[in-house]
Design a protein that fits this description.
alpha/beta; five-stranded mixed sheet; disordered N terminus
Amino acid sequence: MSAYPPGPHEVPARLDGPGDLDGSGDAPGSPAEREVGYELPPMWSWQEFLDRARAPDTIEGGQGRHNTGEWAGASWPEALRLATDGWTRQVPEVEAAIATLRERVRDEVVTTMLVPTWDVTGSEVDVGAYLSGVPECMVDATPQRVSTRGRVVTFLVPAGYTNATPHASVRNRGLALAALCSAIIAAGHSAEIWSGMCVHVEGERYVSVARVISAAEPFDLGRLIFVLAHPAMLRRLWLAVWDSAPRDRAERMCRDDYGWASYACHPDDLPDGVRDPYVLPYLEPADPQWHTFESAMAWCAEVFRELGLVRERH
């Protein structure tokens, strides 16, 4: 891994490396669709994620533990402390944002589902209705917005971004997402949050996901803020997870500077049985919405509004 800030003339495209010359952000020949070349077993709890990050490296020079300087945002011991205790210094700012969002969170979370409808025309025949002489014997699957109240609302947040991404952009985006996710939970909805490191390594897509907030445990705001807003989540812990992967895969990951864009995650990256996740876009450092916390909040609130999770501002 080139685990250092980029030089003044570099165009970032890799997760932690120097990047491509045309600035496209994609590895040459990398697929845009969800093709997985290698996938680590999913980590179902925060403790399992931390255990995987603490596991002994299978390679020499893994950058999760051994990267030096301020680029990672914290030393290895400090990253582990924040992961355990939470990034509590940012809690008051997020709580203030949650208070302003509370009235905008919908009482009922809705999603789009395909619901069968019967009519005199349609794409398929309901044989039973046809034999019974019912004129409305044709069936179509119609998209409808339906309530998911009582079900777990699942978010999948991509952890990857380029090596040139400034700490301020990571922080502003992460605090805004933490505030919005927390407001959903504070409104009484059950929610779980997954973090995903999805990158392209030597032409293959590498995927790993971890459930960092579970609906079955007490909500830990300090942990959520660390996961979403602190650069050490990616530049220490996620890299350490891959440093302890099977040796051949860890060597490939390290040799290819821990991967190329796109860092997008997909619903199918989550384990079987995790239904209807809200998959958020990955961080693009050049996007202007991350320049301030206020602009990040406005942008993320609009995304959540389009997902049907918050109301229009009155």
